[in-house]
Amino acid sequence: MTLTREQAREYVNSLLPTELKRAKKTVNGKNTYICPECGNGSGSDGDGICTRDGSHYKCFKCGFYGDYLDILKNRHVTDNEGEIFARYNIMLDNIRTCPSSNHGQSALPTQSQPEQPVDYTYFFYRRKKTYSAVRLD
């Protein structure tokens, strides 16, 4: 499917209610979901992640704040929205064309540069609280 970047974001964010498990509690009459970061809402206490504006979710246990696209970026350890869109078979319609000798025909950009190494700094920072109490003496 070919969408604009904004349409792709809206589509992925609309999947949250179908892809995450609902928590038992509701907040202000709205459904809450089990936090994929810390599991808040899966037990007898805890509200899970909830929203005020209908698109951004907040977990009061681990501090996560963001939309479903942010959840997916955390889960797959990436900041590149394009990687998430590719997982859902979404192509963006604003692919730039490169001038070539094809006499006006568009050419898709090629991957001529080697892949950049993945920076895991953010991942380790988010998990720091979990492992800070463990001593390896």
Please give a structural write-up:
With 137 residues, the protein is α+β, with helices and mostly antiparallel strands. The protein has one domain. Helices cover 28% and strands 16% of the residues. It is built from five helices and seven strands. Strand 5 and strand 6 form a beta hairpin. The longest helix has 11 residues. About 11% of the residues have low confidence.
What's the number of domains?
Answer: 1
- As a percent range, the share of strand residues is 15-25%
Helical content, roughly? Answer: 25-40%
Give me the Rg, rounded: 19 Å
Label the structural class. Answer: alpha+beta
Instruction: Write down how many β-strands occur, each being a DSSP E stretch of 2 or more residues.
Output: 7
Summarize the biggest pleated sheet: 3 strands, antiparallel
Please provide the ordered H/E string of secondary-structure elements.
EHHEEEEEHHEH
The helix count comes to 5
Q: Terminal Cα separation, in Å?
A: 53 Å
What is the averaged pLDDT score? 75
The side-by-side strand order for the widest beta sheet comes to 4-5-6
Shape: globular
Q: Residue ranges: pLDDT <50 for 5 or more in a row?
A: 96-110
